[in-house]
């Protein structure tokens, strides 16, 4: 198989399915953790806590090399599924591996905000991710300016599913700078649905209404479109 570089592609409006769903799962993860900590500790303690577990340089992400022809087939498969999703027509389930998601992050313009910041592995029924998240947006909050230019580097494992129109994303484990939070904190975090506010975003809600289910199983993510009756 040739490892020729994947050609640059123009952003596709219909690609918003993935930006509106899978990418927002990750954003829900980050914001959910931040919000949970802010409520539990207050902004002042949150700043000190986050500063302790952040670093001045980003973590280097692992890369996935996908031959151009294989990536084009992946892109075609996604486009076909997304067209059917938008039209609410019956279509085969979309099944994605961790390597395919990493290829999308590296090459699809709709995922550019995650490039270099995230690497995904799917193990059994869990999504495991390396993340390197710049703290500049958090630094804009009152009392958080010392986080500017720092990065949250770590690994996380989470479970995600969608059933009856409700998306659930729960944290299973978290490790930052080689350390895991106290079990008391993790027990509380595992009980939180990090995607609970996603339905408040109109674009995200529209996408989720068109999906029958999302299942993580046997190292794959399976997405089933909802067809009109």
Verbal overview:
With 229 residues, the protein is α+β, with helices and mostly antiparallel strands. It has one domain (13-225). Helices cover 38% and strands 24% of the residues. The chain has 7 helices and 7 strands. Strands 1, 2, 3, 4, 5, 6 and 7 form a 7-stranded antiparallel sheet that branches. Strand 2 (118-123) and strand 3 form a beta hairpin.
Percent range for β-strand residues: 15-25%
Separate helix tally: 7
Structural class based on helices, strands and sheet pairing: alpha+beta
Counted up, domains total 1
Rg (CA only) = 18 Å
Estimated helix fraction = 25-40%
Poorly predicted runs:
1-21
Q: How would the global form be characterised? A: globular
Q: Mind describing the biggest β-sheet?
A: 7 strands, antiparallel
Terminal Cα span:
43 Å
Number of DSSP strands? 7
Reading the helices and strands in chain order gives: HHHEHEEHEEHHEE
Mean pLDDT across the residues is 77
